[in-house]
Amino acid sequence: MNPNDAIRVELIQPPDQAAVKALVLAGLVDHWGALDPTLNPDLNDIAASYAGAVFLVARQQGGRVIACGALVPRAAGTAEIVRMSVARDARRQGLGRMLLTQLVAHARAAGLRHIFLETTETWDEVIAFYLRCCFHITHHADGDVYFARDL
Description:
By secondary structure, the chain is α+β, with helices and mostly antiparallel strands.
């Protein structure tokens, strides 16, 4: 049996906000070892910060939120993928790919033609992940790697 069979990917609900904030911040601490609480004000009110976006969560059977990501409209025909995160104990099980696939499907359904994202250039495994998922590197700037994908 596939461990992802019991996973549901759905739109974030108001009661999910605290769990999503904790998930994203834990992922940042995993990478950086510490956290500057002033750098993530968008997570204090996800509904307001991501109004007009598609913000998805992956939920285990039982309701625990174990992954998240958002598709944020930017210019005409273009959107950015942000806040991709997977719980430490749920990584390397295909959840990131599952979530990213759903975000790309939402982008296509909305008629978008181009999506982009960025990550820190020291996150080698994340860079490799996006390359495997058909994104290409457009440039590097200020310690970040920028990716794009045409639909």
